[in-house]
Design a protein that fits this description.
38% of the residues lie in helices and 18% in strands. It is α/β, with parallel strands linked by helices and 366 residues long. Helix 3 packs parallel to helix 4 and helix 5 crosses helix 6. The longest helix has 19 residues.
Protein backbone atom coordinates (compact mmCIF):
# COMPACT_ATOMS: atom_id res chain seq x y z
CA UNK A 1 0.00 0.00 0.00
CA UNK A 2 1.25 3.47 -0.86
CA UNK A 3 0.87 4.88 2.63
CA UNK A 4 2.98 2.20 4.34
CA UNK A 5 6.45 3.53 4.99
CA UNK A 6 5.60 7.13 4.18
CA UNK A 7 7.16 9.91 6.22
CA UNK A 8 5.00 10.59 9.24
CA UNK A 9 3.17 13.92 9.20
CA UNK A 10 4.33 15.05 12.63
CA UNK A 11 3.28 18.34 14.16
CA UNK A 12 5.79 18.67 17.00
CA UNK A 13 4.38 20.24 20.14
CA UNK A 14 6.80 23.14 19.89
CA UNK A 15 5.35 24.01 16.50
CA UNK A 16 1.74 23.16 17.21
CA UNK A 17 0.70 26.79 17.53
CA UNK A 18 1.04 26.98 13.75
CA UNK A 19 -2.30 25.18 13.55
CA UNK A 20 -5.50 26.99 12.76
CA UNK A 21 -6.20 27.87 16.42
CA UNK A 22 -9.91 28.05 15.72
CA UNK A 23 -9.68 30.20 12.58
CA UNK A 24 -11.52 27.48 10.66
CA UNK A 25 -14.55 25.62 12.01
CA UNK A 26 -13.73 21.91 11.77
CA UNK A 27 -16.69 20.75 13.82
CA UNK A 28 -19.48 18.47 12.62
CA UNK A 29 -22.99 18.16 13.96
CA UNK A 30 -22.80 14.93 15.94
CA UNK A 31 -25.79 13.74 17.95
CA UNK A 32 -23.84 12.18 20.77
CA UNK A 33 -23.79 12.19 24.56
CA UNK A 34 -20.11 12.19 25.45
CA UNK A 35 -18.66 9.60 27.81
CA UNK A 36 -17.88 10.62 31.38
CA UNK A 37 -14.46 10.30 32.97
CA UNK A 38 -16.31 9.47 36.19
CA UNK A 39 -17.59 6.18 34.73
CA UNK A 40 -15.32 3.15 34.51
CA UNK A 41 -14.79 2.01 30.92
CA UNK A 42 -13.64 -1.54 30.22
CA UNK A 43 -13.78 -2.47 26.52
CA UNK A 44 -13.86 -6.15 27.50
CA UNK A 45 -17.29 -5.57 29.05
CA UNK A 46 -18.81 -3.75 26.06
CA UNK A 47 -21.92 -5.70 24.98
CA UNK A 48 -21.87 -4.49 21.37
CA UNK A 49 -18.13 -4.81 20.64
CA UNK A 50 -17.36 -5.95 17.10
CA UNK A 51 -14.26 -6.49 15.01
CA UNK A 52 -13.05 -3.94 12.49
CA UNK A 53 -13.99 -6.20 9.58
CA UNK A 54 -17.47 -6.75 11.06
CA UNK A 55 -17.83 -2.97 11.29
CA UNK A 56 -16.97 -2.55 7.61
CA UNK A 57 -19.45 -5.23 6.59
CA UNK A 58 -22.18 -3.71 8.74
CA UNK A 59 -21.73 -0.05 7.74
CA UNK A 60 -20.49 -0.32 4.17
CA UNK A 61 -18.73 2.57 2.46
CA UNK A 62 -17.39 5.68 4.16
CA UNK A 63 -19.93 8.50 3.58
CA UNK A 64 -19.28 11.51 1.39
CA UNK A 65 -18.47 14.86 3.00
CA UNK A 66 -17.89 18.26 1.42
CA UNK A 67 -16.37 20.24 4.31
CA UNK A 68 -12.92 20.25 5.92
CA UNK A 69 -12.04 17.97 8.82
CA UNK A 70 -9.00 17.99 11.10
CA UNK A 71 -8.12 15.21 13.54
CA UNK A 72 -5.56 15.60 16.32
CA UNK A 73 -3.47 12.53 17.10
CA UNK A 74 -1.80 12.20 20.50
CA UNK A 75 0.36 9.11 21.06
CA UNK A 76 2.61 8.02 23.90
CA UNK A 77 6.06 8.78 22.46
CA UNK A 78 7.67 8.77 19.04
CA UNK A 79 10.80 7.22 20.58
CA UNK A 80 8.88 3.92 20.34
CA UNK A 81 8.40 2.86 16.72
CA UNK A 82 4.95 1.43 17.54
CA UNK A 83 3.59 4.93 18.15
CA UNK A 84 5.33 6.30 15.07
CA UNK A 85 3.66 3.60 13.00
CA UNK A 86 0.25 4.27 14.53
CA UNK A 87 0.73 7.93 13.55
CA UNK A 88 1.74 6.82 10.06
CA UNK A 89 -1.53 4.90 9.84
CA UNK A 90 -3.47 8.05 10.71
CA UNK A 91 -1.78 9.80 7.80
CA UNK A 92 -2.56 6.87 5.51
CA UNK A 93 -6.28 7.15 6.14
CA UNK A 94 -6.16 10.93 5.64
CA UNK A 95 -4.40 10.42 2.30
CA UNK A 96 -7.05 7.90 1.20
CA UNK A 97 -9.85 10.24 2.28
CA UNK A 98 -8.44 13.14 0.27
CA UNK A 99 -8.03 10.92 -2.78
CA UNK A 100 -11.73 10.17 -2.47
CA UNK A 101 -12.95 13.74 -2.09
CA UNK A 102 -12.89 14.22 1.71
CA UNK A 103 -10.69 17.08 2.91
CA UNK A 104 -9.19 15.43 6.02
CA UNK A 105 -5.94 16.31 7.78
CA UNK A 106 -4.46 14.44 10.75
CA UNK A 107 -1.76 16.15 12.81
CA UNK A 108 0.00 13.95 15.36
CA UNK A 109 2.23 14.84 18.31
CA UNK A 110 3.80 13.03 21.24
CA UNK A 111 5.42 13.93 24.57
CA UNK A 112 9.14 13.52 25.22
CA UNK A 113 8.94 9.92 26.45
CA UNK A 114 6.62 7.13 27.57
CA UNK A 115 6.82 8.36 31.19
CA UNK A 116 6.09 12.04 30.43
CA UNK A 117 2.52 12.07 31.71
CA UNK A 118 2.37 15.82 32.38
CA UNK A 119 3.85 16.62 28.99
CA UNK A 120 1.21 14.55 27.22
CA UNK A 121 -1.56 16.26 29.20
CA UNK A 122 -0.20 19.69 28.26
CA UNK A 123 -0.14 18.72 24.58
CA UNK A 124 -3.70 17.44 24.73
CA UNK A 125 -4.95 20.62 26.42
CA UNK A 126 -3.37 22.59 23.59
CA UNK A 127 -4.99 20.39 20.95
CA UNK A 128 -8.39 20.94 22.54
CA UNK A 129 -7.89 24.72 22.59
CA UNK A 130 -7.02 24.70 18.90
CA UNK A 131 -10.40 23.27 17.98
CA UNK A 132 -10.42 20.05 15.95
CA UNK A 133 -13.05 17.63 14.66
CA UNK A 134 -11.87 14.68 16.77
CA UNK A 135 -9.00 13.51 18.94
CA UNK A 136 -7.22 10.18 18.56
CA UNK A 137 -5.59 9.52 21.94
CA UNK A 138 -3.24 6.85 23.31
CA UNK A 139 -2.56 7.97 26.90
CA UNK A 140 0.53 7.03 28.88
CA UNK A 141 -1.56 5.96 31.88
CA UNK A 142 -5.20 5.39 32.70
CA UNK A 143 -5.64 8.85 34.21
CA UNK A 144 -3.00 11.33 33.09
CA UNK A 145 -5.08 12.90 30.28
CA UNK A 146 -8.52 12.88 31.91
CA UNK A 147 -8.75 16.67 32.64
CA UNK A 148 -8.16 17.42 28.95
CA UNK A 149 -10.64 14.70 27.91
CA UNK A 150 -13.26 16.54 29.96
CA UNK A 151 -12.23 19.79 28.27
CA UNK A 152 -12.61 18.16 24.85
CA UNK A 153 -16.15 17.10 25.65
CA UNK A 154 -17.04 20.59 26.86
CA UNK A 155 -15.80 21.81 23.46
CA UNK A 156 -17.99 19.19 21.71
CA UNK A 157 -14.95 17.22 20.49
CA UNK A 158 -15.20 13.40 20.48
CA UNK A 159 -12.26 11.44 21.87
CA UNK A 160 -11.23 8.12 20.33
CA UNK A 161 -9.07 5.80 22.39
CA UNK A 162 -6.56 4.00 20.17
CA UNK A 163 -4.77 0.96 21.64
CA UNK A 164 -5.09 2.12 25.27
CA UNK A 165 -8.50 2.34 26.92
CA UNK A 166 -9.32 5.01 29.51
CA UNK A 167 -12.38 6.33 31.33
CA UNK A 168 -14.11 9.00 29.27
CA UNK A 169 -13.23 7.56 25.87
CA UNK A 170 -16.17 7.85 23.50
CA UNK A 171 -14.87 4.98 21.37
CA UNK A 172 -12.10 2.40 21.73
CA UNK A 173 -10.24 1.08 18.70
CA UNK A 174 -7.49 -1.46 19.22
CA UNK A 175 -6.56 -5.06 19.88
CA UNK A 176 -8.01 -7.15 22.67
CA UNK A 177 -5.06 -7.03 25.09
CA UNK A 178 -6.38 -9.95 27.17
CA UNK A 179 -6.52 -12.07 24.02
CA UNK A 180 -2.97 -11.04 23.13
CA UNK A 181 -1.75 -12.55 26.39
CA UNK A 182 -3.78 -15.68 25.75
CA UNK A 183 -2.30 -16.09 22.27
CA UNK A 184 1.21 -15.79 23.72
CA UNK A 185 0.46 -18.33 26.44
CA UNK A 186 -0.94 -20.87 23.99
CA UNK A 187 2.17 -20.55 21.81
CA UNK A 188 4.50 -20.93 24.81
CA UNK A 189 2.53 -23.90 26.10
CA UNK A 190 2.93 -25.69 22.77
CA UNK A 191 6.68 -25.01 22.65
CA UNK A 192 7.18 -26.27 26.21
CA UNK A 193 5.03 -29.37 25.75
CA UNK A 194 2.58 -28.30 28.42
CA UNK A 195 4.96 -27.95 31.39
CA UNK A 196 7.76 -25.71 32.60
CA UNK A 197 8.51 -22.49 34.44
CA UNK A 198 7.93 -19.09 32.84
CA UNK A 199 8.04 -15.41 33.83
CA UNK A 200 6.44 -12.14 32.75
CA UNK A 201 8.08 -8.74 32.24
CA UNK A 202 5.27 -6.21 32.58
CA UNK A 203 4.86 -2.65 31.32
CA UNK A 204 3.67 0.32 33.36
CA UNK A 205 1.30 -0.80 36.14
CA UNK A 206 -1.11 2.10 35.52
CA UNK A 207 -2.27 0.90 32.11
CA UNK A 208 -4.99 -1.53 31.09
CA UNK A 209 -2.73 -2.97 28.37
CA UNK A 210 -0.24 -4.12 31.00
CA UNK A 211 -2.90 -5.61 33.22
CA UNK A 212 -4.78 -7.37 30.44
CA UNK A 213 -1.79 -8.77 28.55
CA UNK A 214 -0.42 -10.08 31.84
CA UNK A 215 -3.73 -11.55 33.01
CA UNK A 216 -4.44 -13.18 29.65
CA UNK A 217 -1.06 -14.89 29.66
CA UNK A 218 -1.08 -15.90 33.32
CA UNK A 219 -4.65 -17.21 33.42
CA UNK A 220 -4.56 -19.21 30.19
CA UNK A 221 -2.49 -22.05 31.66
CA UNK A 222 -4.86 -22.79 34.54
CA UNK A 223 -7.93 -22.50 32.34
CA UNK A 224 -6.52 -24.97 29.85
CA UNK A 225 -5.13 -27.64 32.17
CA UNK A 226 -1.49 -26.79 31.50
CA UNK A 227 1.34 -27.52 33.92
CA UNK A 228 3.23 -24.40 32.82
CA UNK A 229 3.76 -22.21 35.91
CA UNK A 230 4.36 -18.47 36.10
CA UNK A 231 7.02 -18.21 38.81
CA UNK A 232 7.97 -14.53 38.53
CA UNK A 233 6.62 -11.24 37.19
CA UNK A 234 7.88 -7.67 37.50
CA UNK A 235 7.23 -4.27 35.97
CA UNK A 236 9.91 -2.79 33.70
CA UNK A 237 7.73 0.18 32.64
CA UNK A 238 8.28 -0.42 28.90
CA UNK A 239 12.03 0.16 29.38
CA UNK A 240 14.57 -2.03 27.57
CA UNK A 241 17.38 -1.62 30.11
CA UNK A 242 15.12 -2.34 33.08
CA UNK A 243 13.81 -5.46 31.37
CA UNK A 244 17.37 -6.64 30.75
CA UNK A 245 18.29 -6.09 34.41
CA UNK A 246 15.23 -7.99 35.61
CA UNK A 247 15.95 -10.90 33.28
CA UNK A 248 19.58 -11.05 34.37
CA UNK A 249 18.45 -11.51 37.97
CA UNK A 250 15.87 -14.15 37.07
CA UNK A 251 18.34 -16.16 35.00
CA UNK A 252 20.69 -16.36 37.98
CA UNK A 253 17.96 -17.32 40.47
CA UNK A 254 15.78 -19.55 38.29
CA UNK A 255 18.12 -21.86 36.39
CA UNK A 256 15.20 -23.84 34.95
CA UNK A 257 13.29 -20.87 33.52
CA UNK A 258 12.03 -21.87 30.07
CA UNK A 259 10.23 -18.82 28.69
CA UNK A 260 9.80 -15.09 29.35
CA UNK A 261 6.77 -13.21 28.03
CA UNK A 262 7.16 -9.44 27.77
CA UNK A 263 4.28 -6.97 27.53
CA UNK A 264 6.02 -5.28 24.58
CA UNK A 265 8.83 -5.86 22.11
CA UNK A 266 11.11 -3.16 23.51
CA UNK A 267 11.37 -5.07 26.79
CA UNK A 268 11.63 -8.41 24.98
CA UNK A 269 14.68 -7.16 23.09
CA UNK A 270 16.28 -6.25 26.41
CA UNK A 271 15.56 -9.74 27.72
CA UNK A 272 17.17 -11.23 24.60
CA UNK A 273 20.35 -9.32 25.46
CA UNK A 274 20.31 -10.75 28.98
CA UNK A 275 19.84 -14.30 27.72
CA UNK A 276 22.72 -13.99 25.27
CA UNK A 277 25.01 -12.57 27.94
CA UNK A 278 24.09 -15.45 30.25
CA UNK A 279 25.40 -17.88 27.65
CA UNK A 280 22.04 -19.56 27.06
CA UNK A 281 20.82 -20.66 23.65
CA UNK A 282 17.75 -18.79 22.52
CA UNK A 283 14.86 -20.90 21.26
CA UNK A 284 16.41 -23.99 22.82
CA UNK A 285 17.25 -23.27 26.46
CA UNK A 286 14.68 -20.47 26.74
CA UNK A 287 12.07 -18.65 24.61
CA UNK A 288 11.49 -14.88 24.63
CA UNK A 289 8.11 -13.66 23.40
CA UNK A 290 7.18 -10.01 22.92
CA UNK A 291 4.12 -8.05 21.90
CA UNK A 292 3.43 -5.27 19.33
CA UNK A 293 5.18 -6.42 16.15
CA UNK A 294 8.03 -3.90 15.92
CA UNK A 295 10.39 -4.01 12.96
CA UNK A 296 13.34 -4.66 15.29
CA UNK A 297 11.44 -7.60 16.75
CA UNK A 298 10.91 -8.96 13.23
CA UNK A 299 14.65 -8.76 12.61
CA UNK A 300 15.38 -10.47 15.92
CA UNK A 301 13.02 -13.33 15.05
CA UNK A 302 14.72 -13.70 11.65
CA UNK A 303 18.06 -14.02 13.49
CA UNK A 304 16.59 -16.79 15.66
CA UNK A 305 16.82 -14.64 18.79
CA UNK A 306 13.34 -13.48 19.84
CA UNK A 307 11.01 -16.44 19.45
CA UNK A 308 7.82 -14.60 18.60
CA UNK A 309 5.81 -11.40 18.91
CA UNK A 310 2.07 -10.84 19.15
CA UNK A 311 1.71 -8.36 16.33
CA UNK A 312 -1.04 -5.77 16.57
CA UNK A 313 0.03 -4.28 13.22
CA UNK A 314 0.37 -0.72 14.56
CA UNK A 315 0.40 1.06 11.20
CA UNK A 316 -2.83 -0.66 10.18
CA UNK A 317 -4.18 -0.13 13.70
CA UNK A 318 -3.66 3.62 13.31
CA UNK A 319 -5.35 3.54 9.92
CA UNK A 320 -8.29 1.64 11.42
CA UNK A 321 -8.53 4.07 14.34
CA UNK A 322 -8.70 7.05 12.00
CA UNK A 323 -11.21 5.26 9.76
CA UNK A 324 -13.49 4.53 12.72
CA UNK A 325 -13.24 8.18 13.78
CA UNK A 326 -14.06 9.38 10.27
CA UNK A 327 -17.08 7.11 10.00
CA UNK A 328 -18.35 8.20 13.43
CA UNK A 329 -18.02 11.94 12.84
CA UNK A 330 -19.75 11.54 9.48
CA UNK A 331 -22.79 10.09 11.19
CA UNK A 332 -22.46 6.31 11.19
CA UNK A 333 -23.59 4.82 14.53
CA UNK A 334 -20.40 2.93 15.24
CA UNK A 335 -20.34 0.67 18.34
CA UNK A 336 -18.21 1.98 21.17
CA UNK A 337 -15.62 -0.82 20.92
CA UNK A 338 -13.96 -1.92 17.68
CA UNK A 339 -11.39 -4.72 17.96
CA UNK A 340 -8.44 -4.59 15.57
CA UNK A 341 -6.62 -7.79 14.59
CA UNK A 342 -3.60 -9.34 16.29
CA UNK A 343 -1.62 -12.44 15.39
CA UNK A 344 1.42 -14.32 16.62
CA UNK A 345 4.42 -13.99 14.34
CA UNK A 346 7.33 -16.40 14.57
CA UNK A 347 9.79 -17.96 12.15
CA UNK A 348 6.92 -19.52 10.18
CA UNK A 349 5.28 -16.28 9.04
CA UNK A 350 7.53 -13.34 9.94
CA UNK A 351 8.53 -12.88 6.29
CA UNK A 352 4.95 -12.57 5.03
CA UNK A 353 3.75 -9.17 3.86
CA UNK A 354 1.98 -7.36 6.70
CA UNK A 355 -1.12 -7.00 4.53
CA UNK A 356 -1.26 -10.79 4.25
CA UNK A 357 -0.86 -11.38 7.97
CA UNK A 358 -3.49 -8.78 8.85
CA UNK A 359 -5.86 -9.71 6.01
CA UNK A 360 -6.03 -6.10 4.80
CA UNK A 361 -8.36 -4.60 2.21
CA UNK A 362 -8.63 -0.90 1.35
CA UNK A 363 -11.74 0.96 2.51
CA UNK A 364 -14.57 1.85 0.15
CA UNK A 365 -15.88 5.40 -0.18
CA UNK A 366 -19.29 6.51 -1.44
Amino acid sequence: MSWIGKTIMVALFAASTAWSCGAVDYSVNMEKEWASTDDAFDPLQAPDAITFEEMRKQFGAIPKYSGSLRFAGNVKAFENVVWREIANGYVGLADAARMNGIDLTVDTTSPQGENDEEGQLTILRNQVRQGVTAILLSPISDGNCLPAVDAAHRANIPVFSVNNEFDGADWFVGPNALNQGEIAAEWVNEKLGGSGKVAIVMGMPKTGVTRNRTAGFEQWFGKNGSDVKVIAKQNADWDRSRAKDIAQTWLKVHKDLKAIFCNNDVMALGVVEAVKEAGLELNKDIYVVGCDGQAEAYDSIRRNEMAATIDSFPCYEGYMGAEVALRAVLGQKIPRVIWTPCKILDATNVNNEAAVNVGWTDPKFE
